[in-house]
## 1
Amino acid sequence: VRTPAETERAGVPTGSALEPTRGLVEITKVRKSFGATEVLKGITLTVEPGGVAVIVGPSGSGKSTLLRTINHLEKVDGGHIAIDGKLVGYEVRGKRLHELREKTILKQRTEIGMVFQNFNLFPHLTALENVSEAPVVAQGRSKEEARRRALELLDRVGLKDRAGAYPRQLSGGQQQRVAIARALALDPKILLFDEPTSALDPELVNEVLDVIRELAKSGTTLIIVTHEMGFARDVADTVVFMDQGQIVEQGSPEQIFTNPQEPRTRSFFSKVL
Ligand code: ADP
Ligand code: MG
């Protein structure tokens, strides 16, 4: 529970209904439209510290948009999101109360790591430079410290011996593992994965999933969008099924995969499992 002063500093009016929070990530009634199309229709989701939430659902259901709102890549039109008690975006009764300052947004972004489908490595930087760049630029760490830490992280994803390689010299699976090391380099409070293996040849999928499994075991808080259902079942504490901008159903892997309650969930799994 936060003190009124802490709440005030976070930009929330004291005593308002916005008083946070239980989870590390608290998504409350989030809405988002593109033009006339509402793609998030009131999403509420909590992820506990160390928790692993896996989001599944058909293409176009709003999974990527949801991840992007968490990371400030999209502004929400309604509801609010808090990371570790600090608001990412919020709104009350149709009125945005307060625009976060650009500096606050940049700071929060460094606390939220994101790994994309297409790796998004800097092509002109080596694996080591890709991983060590942001800690120097965004967090003001020394080059030497950033380099040492980058080598540790490359080791953790099994790529210490490829530290000097450029992205074009690496396989897709290796590039994605570098991207994971890069996301970890800022010591984020949470890591978001948006279909991290969808762009990979099938034989390269497992080397990436194994790294994510290891992160899950080590207590990193994760939100993962994936179509890999076996992996989802293994790694998730919570499986979230989204369809048409809504969470249709969420629960343990056991509940969602073996005993889904909603017809839409059953119909989706009958196609993908
Ligand atoms: P998913 O990741 O589940 O496939 P997305 O979040 O990418 O779904 O997209 C949800 C819906 O929002 C889709 O209909 C998509 O076309 C639309 N959409 C996503 N991003 C934009 C955008 N920047 N502008 C307009 N429409 C968008
Ligand atoms: Mg998507």
Note: The mean pLDDT is 89.
## 2
Amino acid sequence: MSSSAAEFMEGIIAKNPAEKEFHQAVDEVVESLWPVLEKRPEYRKAKILERICEPERVILFRVPWVDDAGEIQVNRGFRIEMNSAIGPYKGGLRFHPSVNLGILKFLAFEQVFKNSLTTLPMGGGKGGSDFDPKGKSDTEVMHFCQSFMNELFRHIGANTDVPAGDIGVGGREIGFLFGQYKRLRNEFVGVLTGKGLNWGGSLIRPEATGYGATYFAAEMLATRNETMEGKTCLVSGSGNVAQFACEKIIDLGGKPVTVSDSSGYIYDEAGIDRDKLAYVMELKNVRRGRIKEYGEKFSSAVYTPADPKLDYNPLWNHKADCAFPSATQNEINEKDAQNLIKNGVYVVSEGANMPTTPEGVKLFLDKRILYGPGKAANAGGVATSGLEMSQNSLRLSWTREEVDQRLQGIMKSIHKACYETAKEFGTPGNYVNGANVAGFLKIADAMLDQGAV
Ligand code: NDP
């Protein structure tokens, strides 16, 4: 058995070479958990940490499909079934050319802790493909999704593994995936979440991750007797999470001033109001255009193209109070974190998964800003997926107000659990430790109860 956290990490790296995002995610959790493990020898004896880092099952498969030109394309499909100690595997599917085993294992690992924090009975999983939906026709996306499901269907099920969306997988893709599952299985069940409203979807599911990250920021601010009112907010991304983070920031009286895509970002000093946000939603969800067009449409905005030669992202270098990274992993490096702090940002609520590098996280913690890590701050999405599963089982639909109230209640309890656990374990205000330890304890105890499985 490893005698130190460093030795444990050496083992993880040796066993999972070339999976750097997975190493990063495990390292952060091990740092939080090691002092807990030293006090709880029963966890060490049962090798809980060793088992939690090893997926229960990894499925890797070929996804052949025919494009509009009649040519055969071949992609790779994955599903990581990470941990089912407290419920069926649950977690999104990501379609993006960067997808590989290490990225999906990091996401699945984070998902286990996140799902535990939601207070709902869900295990953790993640999946996806290196398929790039950008620039593909609807027919090509459908052909791909059908081929992907032709293999995935035998591994998932309403009581086994319930995937959802993530980067590149929204309502359109979930529709095609669900249609093919239903055809293959000949059963209409809640096997996916993020479904359309008239075929089993839940109100507020599309909004939930962005709304949740904003509710989490409001909870953090409340610990200092402050609110979102009047706060200037930097938001990255312009997809599902970013759009609804902007909407809730506006609802709570704040002012989002940036959104981005992988080609660049816009800075709108006057603020992205409801009309401009409606334009972003139409641009991204209907026309599937680029954020550059926002800069052409609104004279108050400046568009800056992405420059891969820069060692920082200028989006994070504007005066503001709050930041909501909502695009992808490692989008805030140490220099970005320094720029954020220099510009007055003292609230960071992560809509994306692991958007801050370890050096950036360290700086946020050292400076004692209100820093909500993704596995807590963006848990509203999966929590509402859990509510969609409940509604499917009950065969009824809750109102918008009812789901939103439950979401707010869940975000409050996640915040409370992180806040109080951080205090209890001697690191008050450190939501990273709070989230890791609170998420872990519930799973670890379930694993102890269930024996060596
Ligand atoms: P979308 O596909 O809807 O949007 C992603 C956005 O981020 C797009 O604007 C995209 O730009 C940008 N982006 C993606 N990859 C990169 C990259 N490598 N560099 C720069 N920009 C990039 O995804 P979501 O909004 O659903 O997801 C965003 C983040 O939130 C992810 O980290 C995801 O894991 C996390 N998350 C999502 C949840 C959900 O419910 N959807 C739940 C919890 C977390 P472009 O179009 O140019 O690629």
Note: The chain has a mean pLDDT of 97.
## 3
Amino acid sequence: NTFDFGIVGLGVMGRNLLLNMADQGHAVAGLDLDDDKVLSLTEEANSQHRIKATTAVEDFVALIRQPRAILILVPAGKPVDAVIQNLLPHLDKGDILIDGGNTCFTDTDRRYTELSAKGIHFFGMGISGGEKGARFGPSLMPGGNKEAYERLRPIFESIAAKVNGEPCVEYLGNGSAGNYVKMAHNGIEYGIMQLISEAYDLMKRGYELDDTTIQKVFEDWNNTELESYLIEITGHILKKKDTDGQILINLISDWAKSKGTGKWTSQNAMDLEVPLSTVDAAVAMREMSKNKPERIEASSKLIWNAEQTNTDLPAAIETLKEALYFSILITYAQGLALLTKASKEYNYELNLETIAKIWRGGCIIRSVVLEDFRKAYAKNSELKNILLDDSIAKTLNENQSSIRNTVQFAVQKGIPIAGLMNSLAYFDAYRSENLPTNLIQALRDYFGAHTYERTDTNGIFHTEWND
Ligand code: 6PG
């Protein structure tokens, strides 16, 4: 029992994380029921690696030094419970199990409680960065017991992505904090991807730019304040040619799939009463993308003849860039505001500066703006919303004419930009001292005697509106 760590599930993610750990000098045991996976891992390892993979649970557990640390990387849901049940008879008090999948945080809470009663420390850990990230440096979001984390810290810090030498992993908080933070990460991921696709649509159908020019715009944008992983890979994607030389993106079906994390983010934001309108729009647009036959039918019935526009192209692209930047900031703001509320609601004790810090590298939503957010939280850890930071507010104010012009252009052209529009609406609502929701209160009171509060005096009021 001299191995430092164990991984259950040797699919791509499990195998890559295991090899990443082995590269860093850790002795790692692997378990998978599939002989082929065990074999292919052994083949992939080099002579310096201290790796042992097996299909036998007993042998696997016996390899790992105590307290054992075991990462489970199997599909979220029932498979995780099955693995836990398999391992349990062989574990001892104080051992640590970590679920590294995109697990719903409420499942983690349940498992945390069940396993705590048995003396086992259970962690939910978000892992971001895809296959490459797992192999060469992911962003890791662990939540669970703080003391138990010390057993994991050196291993995780050694394999995580580094920004300015700082590892993109830190203990995040209690219970299901890790899975919750990863869920919010994915909500933001949904929002930004939607916004990027809208900017692409505006260039393609709005300004009628050719494929090469659009590709070049994204490539150039990655050298600006938009610098980020998702902008960078959009530039790569738009360049890719199919075997016959056609641009691949033009051959990809527009039916967007999803595994559910974005939807969970929106659902939970509604439960916590946190507005998340850009993410909601992103989820809705993926749903809309599924109705292809209906959309085809509607496209010949619901007609809008857009006027020809004369555009100064370089200026329009600059405006679009600023509009996209503005909306991306709003998307992060929504996700971070959700984390602020969730931290209180679920007693996670999250530190938003830490989260911004570990998202700067390794993860899918990494971008240069995360450093601005980290600084904002470093200045004021009680910041209710990132929009209230002076420096972020200044940036948004400077870019707001661009988002307004972009939205106007899209509306005139009949191009759906739910993400951009909702980002602007969030901004305008957030900065409105008075919203028209007083009328909603009056309507509720009129038809249902639901009562209302007044601006001029305290108390609960009801009016007989028909008298
Ligand atoms: C990451 C990604 C990863 C996965 C998404 C895809 O951080 O590495 O978020 O976890 O690719 O969950 O989600 P959808 O299938 O829902 O788009």
Note: The chain has a mean pLDDT of 97.
